[in-house]
Amino acid sequence: MSDGRVLFQEFLRAPTRVATVTASSEALVTALLAPHQLDGSRVVVELGAGTGRVTDALQHRLRGTGRHVAVEINPVLAARLAERHPAVTVVCADAARLPDVLTEHGIDQADAIVSLLPWAAYAAAPVPALAARALAPTGTFTQATLRGFHLLPPARKQAEDLRAAFGSLTASPTIWRNLPPARVLIAREPRP
Questions:
Q1: Which of 40, 59, 85, 89 shows the smallest number of beta carbons within 10 Å?
Q2: CA 110/CA 67 separation, integer angstroms
Q3: What's the whole-model pTM score?
Q4: For the chain, how are helix, strand and coil distributed in percent, rounded to 5?
Q5: What CA–CA distance (Å, rounded) separates 91 from 3?
Q6: Methyltransferase domain: which residues (predicted)?
Q7: Per-residue confidence in pLDDT tens, the chain, 192 aa
Q8: Strand 67-72 with 43-47, pairing
Q9: SS3 126
Q10: Domain range spanning residue 126?
């Protein structure tokens, strides 16, 4: 079964836990990864890995170096991802378990965290604070967010929480070649 069909099925099954009905576009994936330094022996954590569009791109960029942990709450999507990417540590877990997941895999700090988490994840857990604590001082956190929804209460809360957890928060230009249009929030300077 195609990734798109599986994603759509899983969205229908649990719409608050699956962020979208369509896979991220190449343009969005490129924008999500652009702020990160991915050379050398980096530790990269992916939150909300879904069908693996970002996983594919991260593996290409890492070129067999570093460590890549993909966290996906949906067991169907996590199993498909683990099968496709044996070099990636795929963990079927809630992003709220990020500190435990890293500890269980012998990781002290991540150099980069890439997130495609839906707003429901932010409502259920302090994702920005967890990410800031998991990152090295020079680490970067990126989060895809839908354009046009930035004035809604969940989006405003997400931005407030990111500003509280990081010293720097910027946004990419709108990525019109994504359905729906999106942008990337880029958080740096994690606060202890």
A1: 40
A2: 9
A3: 0.88
A4: 40, 25, 35
A5: 19
A6: 44-139
A7: 544 444 444 444 444 444 444 568 999 999 999 999 998 789 999 999 998 999 999 999 999 899 999 999 999 999 999 999 999 999 999 999 999 999 999 999 999 999 999 888 888 899 999 999 999 999 999 999 988 777 788 889 999 999 999 999 999 999 999 988 999 999 999 998
A8: parallel
A9: coil
A10: 3-190
